[in-house]
Amino acid sequence: MPTIQIKNLYKSYINSDGEPTNALENINLEIKDGEFVCVVGPSGCGKSTLLEIVAGLLSHTSGEVLLDGVPVTGTSRDIGVVFQDPSLYPWRTIKKNIAFGMDIAKIPKQEQEERLTKYISLMNLVGFENKYPSQLSGGMRQRAGIARALVMNPKVILMDEPFSAVDHLTRCTLQDELIRLRQEEKKTVLFITHDLNEAVYLADRVILLTPRPGKIQQEYRIDLPYPRNRDDAFLTHTAATIMTDITTGSRKDDVEYYI
Amino acid sequence: MAQKSNGAKAKKFTFTWINALQILTVAALLISMQVAVSSGAISKVFLATPTDIVKSGWGLITDGTLFPHLLVTLKEVFTGYFLAAAVGIILGFLWVLFPKLEQYMSVFCSAIMAVPKTAILPLLILWFGIGFQSKVVLIFLFGVFTILYNTVTGAKQCKVEYMKVASVFEASRAQLVFKVMIPAALPSIFNGLRLSAATALTGVVFAEMQSAREGLGFLLSQAQNNLATAKVFFIIILVTLISVLFVRIIAGVEYIFCHKWRKV
Ligand SMILES: Nc1ncnc2c1ncn2[C@@H]1O[C@H](COP(=O)(O)OP(=O)(O)OP(=O)(O)O)[C@@H](O)[C@H]1O
Ligand SMILES: [Mg+2]
């Protein structure tokens, strides 16, 4: 059974003037256990909306979202979320930020310490435990945001453009760390990005959404073992194909929506 | 890796020619006051010499008049201020948690807030007498709305992302309030506390001047009636110092709570 099943999903927002905005239209998507799926698409096409619906943070208009066959009705401890802006709490130290979920779940201190030690070193944050977010670089903050999600050991990780705010080098490092982690921990990942090269480098499968209202325009399988080579001909070719599909797919629509 | 400095450390103070000029200005002012009054150019009724101000202040301290009055004023201020802080902060969070309560109450609060507090002093005196209680109520009214609205603004401004993180981890309502909303609102709450600390003393001194048998305001109006201008000056200076100190104390508490993670 796939971990995540999305069936005939529709989402429309009701604006303040009462007019509906259709954000997602007829999304059908199955994500297998342990699969890494990237969602790409023009700005405003509904990627974050999709992620928040799967996370249980947002209700949908019609259709179904199932996690292990059970409808998603709200947030769940089986799903970890990493936000674009890591949204660390500025009043908590890095360590306390990472421990936030465990505090909420009232996990005993002893176990908290063990898990913290593991993920702090996994995310290369040793030595920064007692710093505050304002004292860290953007890349470190993002790593702390990832650690905060992983430390709860969720089955599924949802990531909304987690690396878009960090510089290119840090981004590459974080991508490699994510691949390594995913190999070690066998997580199911739904990853949203603007960056096509990032998508093909990371994912088993890339889903391209159309401009708003987001529909699935195309799917691309990347059957390449990890670790991958960034310059791999197949990867660069696939990225170029996606780019072409985006431009041709949206030519009939508003040009503004290009990435 | 290089560590960023905290940014909270105060800049080292260096004495510049501007500081020297400032001191000279103050000295010139004091000396001209001294000369103008002692030479008779300005009547003692309108202005006092610095030496007379010090003398009358010393007199008030040594003859034991000052401290009982000072104590009365401080007690009134702290009681009223503490009540205002407690009610303002707690009510603020109740409003945020139960928006219906805010909908119901806010119109009444706005109405009471709009009334100039000093105008209802006669009523307060009628209801609570001219002693401790009426002053406490007045200071409470002076401060509570500022603290309330700052708390509400702070808690509402709690970033959507902060709330999302909390709900991803399935925080309960109580956890949301105590672990996210209160810390996120702290800067704004302290802003309200600082603003109302500055006005609290104004309120009480005014009330004591209008009608009281004790307190610094009473002492002030007594000195005024006796045309003891030096005394008037001394009490004004004292009240100003207390007010500044009070605001400093609140800022100090804020520093203790917040300096590690944000510039205060
Ligand atoms: N709360 C809301 N109310 C009304 N419309 C909304 C709301 N949130 C999002 N939308 C609209 O829904 C559409 C999809 O938004 P969404 O944030 O999911 O896009 P996105 O694909 O994540 O964009 P980006 O790549 O810029 O992050 C957008 O056109 C946006 O204007
Ligand atoms: Mg988005």
Note down, in words, how this protein is organized.
The complex is a heterodimer of chains A (259) and B (264). By secondary structure, chain A is of the alpha/beta class. Chain A has two domains: 32-60 and 70-78 and 156-259, Rossmann fold (3-Layer(aba) Sandwich), CATH 3.40.50.300; 89-153, no CATH class. Helix content of chain A is 35%, strand content 24%. In chain A, helix 7 crosses helix 8 (233-251). The longest helix of chain A has 19 residues, at 233-251. The radius of gyration of chain A is 18 Å and the shape is globular. The model of chain A is unreliable at 251-259 (pLDDT under 50). With 264 residues, chain B is mostly helical. Chain B is built from ten helices and no strands. The interface between A and B is medium-sized, with 27 and 25 residues. The complex binds adenosine-5'-triphosphate and magnesium ion.
Indicate the topology.
The complex is a heterodimer of chains A (259) and B (264).
Chain A: E1 4-14, E2 20-31, E3 36-40, H1 47-55, E4 62-67, E5 70-71, E6 79-82, H2 94-98, H3 100-104, H4 109-122, H5 138-150, E7 156-160, H6 168-185, E8 188-192, H7 196-202, E9 205-209, E10 216-221, H8 233-251
Parallel strand pairs in A: 3-8, 3-9, 6-7, 7-8
Antiparallel strand pairs in A: 1-2, 1-4, 4-5, 9-10
Chain B: H1 17-38, H2 50-62, H3 66-97, H4 99-114, H5 121-128, H6 132-156, H7 160-168, H8 173-210, H9 216-225, H10 229-258
The structure holds adenosine-5'-triphosphate (ATP) and magnesium ion.
End-to-end distance of chain B: 26 Å
Q: Name the CATH homologous superfamily of chain B.
A: MetI-like
Q: Look at the structure and give the mean pLDDT of chain A.
A: 89
The portion of residues forming beta strands of chain A comes to 15-25%
Short structural description:
The complex is a heterodimer of chains A (259) and B (264). With 259 residues, chain A is α/β, with parallel strands linked by helices. Helix content of chain A is 35%, strand content 24%.
List keywords for this structure.
heterodimer, A: 259 residues, alpha/beta, Rossmann fold, 2 domains, 6-stranded mixed beta sheet, 4-stranded antiparallel beta sheet, 8 helices, globular, B: 264 residues, mainly alpha, MetI-like fold, 10 helices, 77% helix, binds adenosine-5'-triphosphate, binds magnesium ion
